[in-house]
Amino acid sequence: MQALEKRALSVSEAAGGREPRNKRKLPLAAMLRHPEMLQALGSGLLMLAGWGASHWSQLLSVTLYVAAYGVGGWMKAKEGAMTLIKERDLDVNLLMIAAALGAASIGYWNEGAMLIFIFALSGALETFASDQSRKSISSLMALRPEKALRVSGGRMEMVPVSELAAEDLILVRPGEIIPADGAVQSGTSAVNQASITGESIPVDKTAGDQVYAGTLNGENALYVEVSGPAEGTLFAKIIALVEEAEEAVPASQRFIERFEGIYAKTVVAATALLIGLSPLLFGWTWNESFYKAMVFLVVASPCALVASIMPAMLSAISSSARRGILFKGSVHVQNLAETKLVAFDKTGTLTQGKPVVTDLIVKDGEEANHLLQMAASAEQLSAHPLAKAVVAEAVRRGLELQPIAEMKSVAGWGVEAVIRGEAWKIGKADFASGTYGEQDWWIKQSGELERAGKTVSLIFREGAPVGLLALRDEVRPVAKAAISHLHKLGIKAAMLTGDNEATAKAIASEAGIDIVLSGLLPQDKASRIQQLREQYGGVVMVGDGVNDAPALAAANVGIGMGAGSGAALDAADVVLMNEDIDRIAGAISLARRGRRIVKQNMVFAIAVISLLVAGNFGVGIPLPLGVVGHEGSTILVILNGLRLLRYGSSPS
C-alpha cells in the first residue's frame, strides 16, 4: 500500500495535483546536465584557461580562446547561418558571432570569448526554460502505458495499447495506470484522476462509471470495457492540446520576431557606418572606432527583447496545465488578461445540471409521503429530467414505487397514470383548468414558489389537485465563491440562460451574478455576447461546449467545461478539466501576472539597451561590461518569465 500511495502522489504532483513546496524549485542538477548548458560551461572553462595561459604562452592562450569560440559559438553560428540562408534574414545569433570575431580581430580575444560564453549561457538557459515549461507534456506522456491486459474468451493476454478497439474488455489491476477510456463493467475502486482533472483526491468508481486513460487505479481490480482506440482518448487529446498550445506563437511574439530581422539589419548598418565614419567625424583611431563599433554591436542587439515574451507565456501555459486548465495557445493567455466580464451558461455551469425536489406541499388531510409515492410511480417510466428528479426523491425517502396499470405522457405538461384503480396526474401548474372553489389553495402557493425560481408540478387524484411539488436546478456550491473571487479582481459576472426571468433572477441572486440575460436560444447567446463585448471589451464565456458553442466562439475567450467532453475540447479556447469554476479567477490572475511580467521584461530590456548604447558613446564602456550588461539582462528576463512556473491556482 505504501508503494501505491507513493505512486499516486507521483501522479498527482506530475500531472495536476498541488506540488509540494520543495518540488517547485528549478532543478539545478538537471540544468547543469542540459547539453547546451554543458557546452556553455565548457566554453567558459576554456575562456578562463585561455586567460590564465596568456601570462606565459600567447600561442596556447589564443588556441584555448579559439576552442572556447568553437565550443560555445558553433551551434549559435549554425542557427544564424540557417536563418540567413533559408529566410535571407539576420538574427541576434549572427550579430553576436560577428561581434565576438570582430573583437578577436583587433586582439580582444578574452572579451570575444566572454561574449561567446555568456551568449551561449543565456541561450542554454532559454532552451532549458522552454524544456521546463514543457514538463507538463513529458509528465503526462510518462503516465501513458504501452500495454494492456485484454480479456477475451476467458483468456488474458498482454497486448499493445494501440491494438485496443471499442468493446474490448481489459483488466486493470490495483496500482496500475488505466490504459484506455471506457466504462467500468465490474469491480469497485478509487481512481486518482489528477492527470485529467488536476485534482489529486481519488474518485470512487463502480459498474457503469466512466474512466479515462492515464488515470491511476486504486486498491481494487477493475474490468473496463474500452470505448475507443488509443488515439481518440481524452488523455491523447489533452497531450495534443498542450503540445499545440506550447508551439503556438502569440501576436506580440510574432511582431518581435519580425522586428528582430529589421532591427538586426539596422544595427549591422549602423555598425558599418560607425567603423567607417567615426575616424572622420570624431577623430578616433581605426582601432578605437572598431572597438566602439563592436561594443555597439553587442549592446544594441535585441536578445533580451526577443526573450521577453515566450518564456513567460510557456511558463503560464505549463503552470495552468498542471492544474487542469488547458490553453489552446498563448494568444488566449494574453486575451484572458484583458477580461472585464465573465459570462456563464446557467445549466451545468453555475448549477448542478440536474433538478431536485425542494418542496412538497399537500392539501389538508393528505399524507405527503403517500402523494410523493404515487407521483413517482406515475413518473417512473418517463425520461424527462423533472420526472427523474421526482423518482429520485421518492427513492431517497425509501418509498416503494407502485405498479401502474395505464400510463400516458401528455406533451407539454406531464403524465397520466392509473395506480390501484385511481387516476393520477402530475404536470405543470398551468395544466389545471377551470376552478376548484375551495380547492384553489394551490394557486397562491405555486405563485410564491415560481417567484423563487422553482418549477411547480401539481399532483391530481381523480381530477382534483391534492398536492404540489417544487423543483429546481440547485446552484453549485462553488459558484458563489467563484463569482466572489471574480468581483475581487474587478470583473463583472453575467448569466445567460433559456430559463424564464423569475427562475434566472433567483439563481443569479443566490450566486451573486451582476447581469442576468434570460429566455435566450443558443443563437441569441452569441449575439448577446457580441453586445457585451461592445459594452465591456474583454468578455469570457463559460459553458459546456455543446449548445454553448456559438457563444464560446463569439467571446474573446471561450472556456469549455468538463472532463470527458470532446465538444468542450473542440469548441473552447481554454478547457477547464475539473469543472471547478472557482479556478477561472485564478487563471485570469495568472494571465494578468504573465502580462505584467512581459511588460516588465520589455521595459527592462529596452532600458538596458538604451543605457548601454548611451554609455558606449558617452563614457566609453569596455566590451566586457557591455557583454555582461547585455547578456545579463537577457538571463534576467528569462528567469523573470520562469517565475510563472511556480504560480499557483489561487485567484489572489
Automatic annotation (TrEMBL):
Compartments where located: Cell membrane
GO molecular function: ATP binding; ATP hydrolysis activity; ATPase-coupled monoatomic cation transmembrane transporter activity; metal ion binding
GO cellular component: plasma membrane
Keyword Zinc-finger annotated: no
Topological type in the membrane: Multi-pass membrane protein
Chief location bin: membrane
Organism listed in the record: Paenibacillus yonginensis
Region (Disordered), start-end ranges: 1-22
Key words, A-Z: ATP-binding, Cell membrane, Ion transport, Magnesium, Membrane, Metal-binding, Nucleotide-binding, Phosphoprotein, Translocase, Transmembrane, Transmembrane helix, Transport
Pfam families cross-referenced by the UniProt entry: E1-E2_ATPase, Hydrolase
Protein name: ATPase
Matching SUPFAM superfamilies: Calcium ATPase, transduction domain A, Calcium ATPase, transmembrane domain M, HAD-like
CDD domains: P-type_ATPase_HM_ZosA_PfeT-like
The family this protein is said to belong to: Belongs to the cation transport ATPase (P-type) (TC 3.A.3) family. Type IB subfamily.
Domain of life: Bacteria
Spans through the membrane: 89-106, 112-129, 262-284, 290-314, 602-621
Annotated P-type ATPase A domain residues: 143-243
